[in-house]
Write a structure and sequence with these properties.
The chain has helices at residues 48-63, 85-90, 93-112, 128-135, 162-170, 172-179, 187-192, 205-217, 221-254, 257-277; strands at residues 25-30, 33-38, 69-74, 117-121, 125-126, 138-142, 146-148, 185-186, 198-200. It is of the alpha/beta class. It has a single domain, classed as 2-enoyl-CoA Hydratase, Chain A, domain 1 (Alpha-Beta Complex), CATH 3.90.226.10. Strands 1-2-3-4-6-9 form a six-stranded mixed sheet, sandwiched between helices. Strand 2, helix 1 and strand 3 (69-74) form a beta-alpha-beta unit. Helix 5 crosses helix 6 (172-179). It is globular. Residues 1-10 have low confidence and may be disordered.
């Protein structure tokens, strides 16, 4: 096993089990590699409790001296299904303010990590799930996975990071093509336009990510971390300049009649599909 890095500020060791309280995220650390499984096998949308844990996740990983690289993947057939529409329906204004603050901290905490983070996008990555994958340092995506940010379809601004990271990766016009329509694409298409890094058959995604994480973890840590910080600096600046504004725009849209109508229409479609399957 690699020797823990004693210089990481505020670091703890995995033996203190900093992940014991997480219930919506599966977290394991083995020989320098942390594997985080988003959600549970039957619950892949981001509920309030899931969102709470995402806020804490990246800080806990950053402080873990045993972690040299991180792999994020889905616990089930998806990577992450995005926000839970049932939660959207019930959230109160004061809860909305807190949730949007959490959204800011999730992105900021992810970007502030010193360890490289690899997204092993094993299945669909939608909304916040897609945003988190795109803010990772490396993405490996299943060829047939559906990825995208359909905030607008629910009457919402893509304020939790999508409006920032998409133009950074694929340019203004291509980003607008997808953010303003909410259209999804396959993983292979995402790689083709530069949104994600590498496509692979779904059954190979996690193994490829773990192999890459192993290679990175075995390299000199200060060089890896310094290179990551240098590469991500421009994205961090864009987040500091724009995230507060985009979250405020999302808050305004989240209190609009159009959003409420879109949520009701979505839930009604879900009920009809459930009745047809029964």
């Amino acid at each position: 096993m690699r020797s823990p890095n004693p210089t990481r500020e505020g670091a703890v060791t995995s033996s203190e089990n900093p992940y014991a309280t997480f219930q919506h995220l599966g977290i394991s650390v083995d020989d320098g590699i942390a594997v985080v499984r988003l959600g549970t096998g039957d619950r892949m949308a981001v509920s309030e409790a899931f969102h709470n844990e995402l806020e804490l996740l990246f800080g806990a990983l950053a402080r873990d001296r045993d972690v040299e690289a991180v792999v994020l993947t889905g616990a089930g057939r998806m990577f992450c299904a995005g926000g839970d529409v049932n939660w959207m329906e019930s959230v109160q204004p004061e809860e909305l303010d807190y949730s949007l603050g959490q959204g800011r901290r999730i992105i900021e905490n992810l970007l502030s990590m010193s360890q490289p983070v690899i997204a092993a996008v094993n299945g669909h990555a939608v909304g916040l799930g897609c945003t988190i994958a795109l803010f990772c340092d490396i993405t490996i995506v299943a060829e047939e996975a559906k990825v995208g940010d359909p905030h607008v379809g629910l009457g919402l601004v893509a304020g939790d990071g999508g409006a920032i990271i998409w133009p950074q990766l694929i340019g203004l016009h291509r980003a607008n093509r997808y953010l303003l329509t909410g259209d999804l694409m396959t993983g292979a298409e995402a790689v083709e336009i530069g949104l994600m890094g590498e496509a692979a058959p779904g059954e190979e995604v996690l193994d490829r990510a773990l192999a890459l994480a192993r290679r990175i973890a075995d390299l000199p840590g200060p060089a890896v971390r310094g290179t990551k910080r240098s590469v991500i600096h421009a994205v961090s600046l864009a987040v500091r300049q724009t995230l507060e504004l985009s979250l405020e725009k999302e808050r305004t849209s989240a209190t609009s009649p159009e959003h409420r109508a879109a949520v009701q229409a979505f839930l009604e479609r879900q009920r009809r599909r459930a009745a047809e399957r029964a």
